[in-house]
Fold each of these.
Amino acid sequence: MANPKKKHEKNLAGAFYCTDPDDDGGEGCIACNVCYSGAPEFFAEDDHGNAYVKKQPSTAKEIELCQEQIDACPVNSIGKDG
Ligand code: SF4
């Protein structure tokens, strides 16, 4: 489960979010490229390659696509409130 207390500051407000990399090596985005390659309409990379949500999904199909990125993220760095 992505840590909701470590949300990337560039996430667009809404249910879906990405979490910051953790310098302690605990958790957070590792800039693996999966989500912003798989769903570039909704996820983007910052200057360090770390992901943030740039658009919140609204339709069922969009939500499904973003949910797939949650499932695909190797370090559980994408979360969904609610
Ligand atoms: S899939 Fe996860 S680790 Fe990879 S870039 Fe996206 S948020 Fe970061």
Amino acid sequence: MLRYLLMDLDGTLLPVDINFFLERYLYGLAPHFRHLADEATFIQQLMASTMETINNNDPRLTNEMVFWENFSQRMGVPRQELEPIFNEYYAKEFPGLKRYLPETDRAVKLLHQAKELEMELIVATNPIFPQSVIMERLRWIGCDQYPYLWVTAMENMHYCKPNPNYFREIVERLSLPPEECLMVGNDMEEDLPAKAVGIKTCIVTDFLIDRKTSKYTPDYLGTMDQFIKDLPAIVGKG
Ligand SMILES: [Mg+2]
């Protein structure tokens, strides 16, 4: 019986093509740093520090620590000077990105279905954003008020997908039996390494990302609508 549902955000709960979203985010943010770097340079440095964060495998460092250490070094500007600019953008402009999302109730339906099945929910989004930003994105789809067991964010995680340690950290921190967990995502490379820890996996195909490099195959593959409908059978209550 599967009792814990780990849910990816971008392309899974959030009906969004990640590149489309990232572009709007980056080009909205970059002008705020014009006094420090031109837009192309800023974006390049931000992406490089994000990659460093994703690749870091040091168990002593949170993603937040890795990112800020790296990014402030790249920019030659201390975190205390950079972070308030991010925060102002997140507070004033970022919420407006909601307008690029199609209206959907699929995420709410999934949460409802999981609750009916008495599953505990974990938001397992790649933890490269602060918690507040992840909660804002959950708000866009009406899913911010749910009593999640955990929401992974840059402050509370030491690894990123596709590192299997990301999934290991979740099950260890929450003391979850991996065989009772199900990871649902849209990215073959990022979400399937959950299998390395013994977690069952589902890939939803609405915004499928498949670089054909994953060594894993999902236990279940289908559209989000099919997944919601089949969830009772998938978790062993059908
Ligand atoms: Mg995704």
